[in-house]
Amino acid sequence: LLALLHLFLAPPRCQAAAMDLLPRRLAWSLMGDTVHSAVDLLPTFVAFAAPGGPAAAWRGACFAENEAVLSLTPGPRGSNSTAAGLGGAVLRLKTASAQSWTCMDLYVFATPYRIGWDYYTRAHQHTFEIKSWEEAGEMEYVKLHGVAIFLMPSGMLGTLLSLIDVIPLFSNTIWGQDANLAFLQKHMGASFNKRSQPWAANIRKEDVHSGDFLALSKIRGRWGGFQTLEKWVTGAFAGHTAVCLKDENGTLWVAESGYENKKRVKKSLL
User: Fold this and answer.
1) Rounded distance, CA 232 to CA 213, Å?
2) N or C: which terminus of the chain has fewer CB atoms within 10 Å of its end residue's CB?
3) Distance CA 257, CA 37 (A)
4) Non-local CB neighbours of 187 within 8 Å, separated by 6+ positions
């Protein structure tokens, strides 16, 4: 008990050194005691791994020497599925030069069509497999640009501990609403001032013109939490935007992004 107390009271560098003397499971449970910020949820881009290109190399949070090579894999013979017939890819990673006995680097692998993740705890050869492409566009993108590799610099436990600052944002309560407002004030310097009553306003259609811009913000519940994080990572001060349009008959529509069709645009009659 005295040793653990000394560990928590010691300077950060001494803490890191002492972690190596503890069993791995215990060390992992104690790591990250100073990590309680949403900033630690942000991944750090480290490399692109493209087929046929040189090995991507970078320094990790714990493993100092890392390499990745991407190779394409053919699709199964006689496949009736267009996506499966395109094949996939295998990302081969090599981790080396551990800086601690309790190393654990957490990675995110991404294309515009998918996001995957994996973590590595020892210096070794590792593989991350993409069994099949979502569509031909993903395969062409990877051939041209490669798969993006992101490092979670705080590791798995540090990332989980940082959720303390984020989980309340998704609560559909007054507590959750206050958490969203406090988060935006703390991380963006953005303040929302409560307007005086009446809180509802009637706007005549005749006063609305094509091109009028609508900026919306949710600050409560599941989508309120998502919009708060979107604002933070993009620097926007609105969670959703839309524009008013009038057609040749004078009918008023609201156009906005959506997932109801392949064009990702929808319009609603106002």
Assistant:
1) 21
2) N
3) 31
4) 38, 39, 232
**DSSP output for 56-96:** EEE--SSEEEEEEEEEEEPPPTT---HHHHT-EEEEEEEEE
- Cβ pair 181, 36 in contact under 8 A: no
Q: Is the dihedral of CA 214, 218, 222, 227 positive or negative?
A: positive
User: What's the mean pLDDT in 81-105?
Assistant: 85
* Helix residue ranges per DSSP H, the chain: 2-9, 12-19, 24-30, 82-85, 136-144, 155-162, 174-188, 221-234
Report the C-alpha gap between 143 and 70 in whole angstroms: 10
Alpha-carbon gap, residue 105 to 60, rounded angstroms: 7
pTM above 0.85, yes or no: no
Alpha-carbon distance of 31 to 50, in angstroms, equals 34
Whole-number pLDDT of residue 153 = 83
Cα separation, 77 vs 96, whole angstroms: 37
Could you tell me the pLDDT band of residue 233, with boundaries at 50, 70 and 90? confident
Give kind and range of the element (H or E) at residue 106: strand 105-111
Q: Specify the residue for token string 């959750």.
A: 176
Q: With beta carbons less than 8 A apart as the criterion, state whether 165 and 38 touch.
A: yes
Q: State the sign of the Cα–Cα–Cα–Cα dihedral 27, 30, 33, 35.
A: positive
Return the number of other C-beta atoms located less than 10 Å from residue 189's C-beta: 7
Q: Which pLDDT value is given to residue 175?
A: 92
CA–CA distance, 6 with 70 (Å, rounded to integer): 45
- Confidence band, pLDDT 50/70/90 cuts, at residue 45: very high
